[in-house]
Specification:
2 domains; about 250 residues; five-stranded parallel beta sheet; TIM Barrel; about 45% helix; 10 helices; alpha/beta
Length: about 250
Amino acid sequence: MPGITDMNHTKEIWEETIAEFPKMWLQDEYVGFQGKHWSLPPRKILPKPYGKSHPAMWYAAGSPSSYAMAGKMGLGVLGFSVQKVSDMEWVVESYKNAIKEAKAVGDFVNDNVMVTSTAICAETHEKAVEIAVGGGLNYLQSLLFRYHDTFPRPEGIPEWPELLPEYSAEIIELLIQEELMICGDPSEVLAQCKRWEQAGADQLSFGLPIGISYEDTMNSIKLIGEHVIPEIDTDPVHRTTRFRQAAGN
């Protein structure tokens, strides 16, 4: 779709395009498409997905209204968490209600909410907070408000390239208390993950701050892998894999 300069039409283009991907994956020879914004003649499209059906389809959501829209289309949601857990509960609920009546654009409904959150795990709470303070979280947050124009910009957020002030231990503790980040010892991290589970999230994806050391990064991964994941991820088969395997049955 070369030559597109008016970004106001991107949602319309997306809606015109999204249902064509499953056809390209599943039809031996794609029947082609002629739409308002783009067209493609019939042709064989390779490579085809390996295994049954096609890969799960997801929608990256940055605003609450996107969740319900994705649910209606049978898409999983890749949710980028910029709110506390309690503020996200109704958003997840809107998705779960919408997906009950989904008209899937793909071969199957991918009933999944995946939430992304900053996560730091250490042997003690104090060590985890210390790591977070040096993690450069102010840089990440400043970037977030710059490139995600769908996120609300609170008063006091400086214009790029000026950055938010560096986070102190007090700010990190407040973020933990307000459920805006996952941080602590293994038992605390497990409890924080359980809160997302209670809110209706099906999966959690952790992002580690860019400023923490390799050693602290690997230690976080090790502690979460040993003490947190086994307590909440007890199904050997991925949820999305089950939906794909059941497609067409």
